[in-house]
TrEMBL record:
Residue span, Malic enzyme NAD-binding domain: 172-420
Record keywords: Metal-binding, Oxidoreductase
Cofactor: Mn(2+); Mg(2+)
Entry annotated with the keyword Transit peptide: no
GO MF term (any one): malate dehydrogenase (decarboxylating) (NADP+) activity
Organism whose genome encodes this protein: Oligosphaera ethanolica
Lineage, top ranks: Bacteria, Pseudomonadati, Lentisphaerota, Oligosphaeria, Oligosphaerales
Protein known as: Malate dehydrogenase (Oxaloacetate-decarboxylating)(NADP+)
Domain Malic enzyme N-terminal: 20-160
Coiled-coil segments on the chain, per record: none
EC number: 1.1.1.40
C-alpha cells in the first residue's frame, strides 16, 4: 500500500469510527433527576427566558452564546479542493470546530449552507449574507470559512456592518495575521525594515489579497507590493480577470510575469499553486530573501530548494517544515480574546495585536516546562536547538509552534487589550496579567 493509500484509509477510518464525524454535543449541566429535568426544560427554563426578555444582555449569563462560534461556509473554496460544495466541506468545518475546542476551549458549530449560489455555482453574496445574519441570537461570533473570492469580501464586509458580534473570515485574515507575525521577526533578521520591503505576492484570491493589504496596514508601502494571479502581474490598466480588490493593488511597475516581479524583491509570499517558483527566481531576488511558500500540499518551492538558492528565512503551510504558517496559531486566541471581552467586532487593531503577540511569543525565552512540552511535540526541532537561546528567533524559527501552550493565552490577551482600548468591548477586563494567567491554567492539557 502506498503512503497516499495509507493516509486515505486512516483518514476515512478516523472520520467514520467509532461514530461518524469528529464532534458531538455534551451537556454542561446534570440531567439525571426529576428536579434536573424541571430546571433544564419546563417549567424552570421559563425563568432564564423571561430574564433575557427583560434584559437582552443577560443572554450571556444564562446561555452558552458567549462561548459559541458558528463556522459558516458554502464550500466554494475549500483549501486544496476548490468548489466542492457545502456537504463535502462539512468535514473541514467539523475539523475547525475540533481546533476551536482543543486550543481555546470554544464550542464551535459547523454550519454549511446550500441554496446560496448563483446559476453558475458561485457564491451569491446577498443570499449568504441573508442567512448568516440571522445567526446572531445564538452565537457569540461568526467564523467564515472557505468562501470563494470575490464574494467573500462582500460577505464579510456587510456582515460586520450589520451584526453586533465578531465576524472573521479566517481564510483572509488568519493567513495574513500569521504570516505578518513571521515577517515581524524575519525583517530584522535580514537587516530590513517594513517601510522599504519589496514584496511579491503570488495568488490574488482571498488570502493573497488580504495578506497584501494587511502588510500595507502594518507599514509596507503599497507601491512596494506586486501581486500576481493566473494571468501574471496585476498592473494598472490591465483588463483581464480584474476586480475592485485587485484594482487597489495594481502596480505601476513594468514587470508582467512572476519571474520579472521577483528580480530584486526582498520577500516572496505564495498563496497560489505548487512548484511555480524556481531556484533561478529565488537567486534573482535581493540578498537574504524571505520566502513564505504556503501552497498546500505542494509549496510554490520546497524549502530545501529555496535555501539552496539563497533564501534566508523560509516558511510553508506544512507541519513537516520549519516556520509553518498555520492558521491555528491565530483564530483560537483571536476569538478567545474577543469573546471574553464581548467585543462587537474584530478590528484591524485587534488583528495587528494578534500578529504582534505571536512575534512576541517567538522572541521570548522559553521556560523549561514549556520547552519540555515542545520537545515532546517537536522532537526533531528540539534536538536541532530550535527552542534554545534567550531570544530563540532564528531563520528556522520566526513564528511559534501551534502546540506552544503560551500562544493562545498571549494572543487572547493582546486581542482583548486592543478591543478594550478601542472601546469595542461590552465586558472589559481590568487585570490582563491575571486574565492571561487564568487562561494558561484553563487551557492546560495533560
Amino acid at each position: 500500500m502506498s503512503s497516499n493509500d495509507s493516509l486515505k484509509s486512516r483518514s476515512l477510518s478516523y472520520h467514520e469510527e467509532p461514530v461518524p464525524g469528529k464532534i458531538s454535543v455534551i451537556s454542561s449541566k446534570p440531567c439525571e433527576t426529576q428536579q434536573d429535568l424541571s430546571l433544564a426544560y419546563t417549567p424552570g427554563v421559563a425563568e432564564p427566558c423571561l430574564a433575557i426578555k427583560d434584559d437582552p444582555a443577560s443572554v450571556y449569563r444564562y446561555t452558552s452564546k458567549g462561548n459559541t462560534v458558528a463556522v459558516v461556509s458554502d464550500g466554494t473554496a475549500v483549501l486544496g479542493l476548490g468548489n466542492i460544495g457545502p456537504a463535502a466541506g462539512l468535514p473541514v468545518m467539523e475539523g475547525k470546530a475540533v481546533l476551536f475546542k482543543r486550543f481555546a476551549d470554544i464550542d464551535a458549530i459547523p454550519i454549511c449552507l446550500s441554496k446560496v449560489f448563483t446559476a453558475d455555482g458561485h457564491t451569491d453574496a446577498d443570499k449568504l449574507i441573508a442567512v448568516a445574519e440571522t445567526l446572531e441570537p445564538t452565537f457569540g461570533g461568526i467564523n467564515l470559512e472557505d468562501i470563494a473570492a470575490p464574494a467573500c469580501f462582500k460577505v464579510e464586509t456587510v456582515l460586520k456592518e450589520r451584526m453586533g458580534i465578531p465576524v472573521f473570515h479566517d481564510d483572509q485574515h488568519g493567513t495574513a495575521i500569521i504570516s505578518l507575525a513571521a515577517l515581524l521577526n524575519a525583517v530584522p533578521l535580514t537587516d530590513r525594515s517594513l517601510d522599504t520591503l519589496q514584496v511579491v505576492v503570488n495568488g490574488a484570491g482571498a488570502a493573497g489579497i488580504a495578506c497584501a493589504e494587511f502588510y500595507i496596514l502594518a507599514g509596507v508601502r503599497r507601491e512596494n507590493v506586486v501581486i500576481c494571479d493566473s494571468h501574471g502581474v496585476v498592473y494598472q490598466g490591465r483588463e483581464k480577470g480584474m476586480n475592485p480588490a485587485k484594482e487597489r493593488l495594481a502596480t505601476s511597475k513594468p514587470c508582467r510575469t512572476l519571474a520579472e516581479a521577483l528580480v530584486g524583491a526582498d520577500m516572496f509570499l505564495g498563496c497560489s499553486v505548487g512548484r511555480c517558483v524556481t531556484q533561478d527566481m529565488v537567486r534573482s531576488m535581493a540578498a537574504k530573501p524571505i520566502v513564505l511558500a504556503m501552497a498546500n500540499p505542494v509549496p510554490e518551492i520546497f524549502p530545501e530548494d529555496a535555501l539552496a538558492a539563497g533564501a534566508y528565512v523560509v516558511g510553508t503551510g506544512r507541519t513537516d517544515f520549519p516556520n509553518q504558517v498555520n492558521n491555528v496559531l491565530g483564530f483560537p486566541g483571536i476569538f478567545r480574546g474577543a469573546l471574553d471581552v464581548r467585543a462587537r467586532d474584530i478590528t484591524e487593531e485587534m488583528k495587528l495585536a494578534a500578529s504582534r503577540a505571536l512575534a512576541e511569543v517567538a522572541r521570548a525565552t522559553i521556560p523549561a516546562e514549556v520547552k519540555a512540552q515542545l520537545a515532546k511535540a517537536y522532537p526533531a526541532d528540539a534536538a536541532a536547538g530550535v527552542f534554545d537561546g534567550e531570544c530563540p528567533v532564528k531563520p528556522s524559527y520566526v513564528i511559534p509552534k501551534p502546540f506552544d501552550p503560551r500562544v493562545v493565552p498571549h494572543v487572547a490577551r493582546r486581542v482583548a487589550e486592543a478591543a478594550v482600548a478601542q472601546g469595542n468591548a461590552d465586558a472589559p477586563i481590568a487585570d490582563f496579567d491575571a486574565y492571561e494567567a487564568a487562561l494558561v491554567k484553563r487551557l492546560a492539557h495533560g
